[in-house]
Amino acid sequence: MDLNVRSLGVTDDGGQLDVIRSEKLDTLLRSYIAKNDCFPFIALFQETWLDPTNDYQYSPNPLVPEGYATLISHREDPNERQIRGRGLMIIVHPDLLDMLSSQRGPAASLTLIDHITTPTFEFLAASLGNIYVASVYVKITYQHPDHEHLVEMLFALRPPRCQHVILGGDFNYAHLWDECHALFQEVGVSSVITANKKTIPCTHSGGNVLDHVIVSRGVVVNSVTTTPMNHLTEHFLITLKVTLTEREH
Known about the structure:
- The chain is of the alpha+beta class.
- 19% of the residues lie in helices and 35% in strands.
- It has helices at 22-36, 94-104, 147-156, 176-179, 181-187; strands spanning 2-4, 9-11, 17-20, 42-46, 69-73, 88-92, 110-117, 121-128, 131-138, 164-170, 189-193, 211-216, 219-228, 236-244.
């Protein structure tokens, strides 16, 4: 699942974004479970707006159910409240870790690869056994983001052992597949979910396609749904059910 959550923090009486609003994520997960009758195995979030004093990883994590593996990137400066898009999160269900460990040999873990932020985008990249995952946010600025450069950076960080790729985020751009089509073919991307407006009309309450999930060859997408989350955020929740298959490097 992928979602721009538009803040997991709330302001205290002093006006600082330093209180973790765990009930918002709890509401989101409960909504997902009620609709799908299961927990999400991988969840990618953008615009978490968590305080910089929070580290990438802490245990136990008050934001997610017990047992989930979690990586968090914080906003760089709590005083820069006018700067949007600070903060990303990746959470993984323990059953997936157990499944990957039993199938692939060594114990699988959610391991940070890098957290990169630029004036136009940021991403949090990690490995999960032989799966490469990343949560991505492209900021709305006066400078048009170079999406090809972003995609090149994302795939340059992919470890050789990671044959499967699942990248999700708010790209603030509808034509990602068209702009980066040649590069996607070169790096082995099989599809960009939500690239076809006939299939996914919009991912935002304003009627736009802003959010995408990028998957590589070997990640077979069985179904895709988008769900309005009006009580939480203007963005729609994107849910994928996939099957991982073996492929040649």
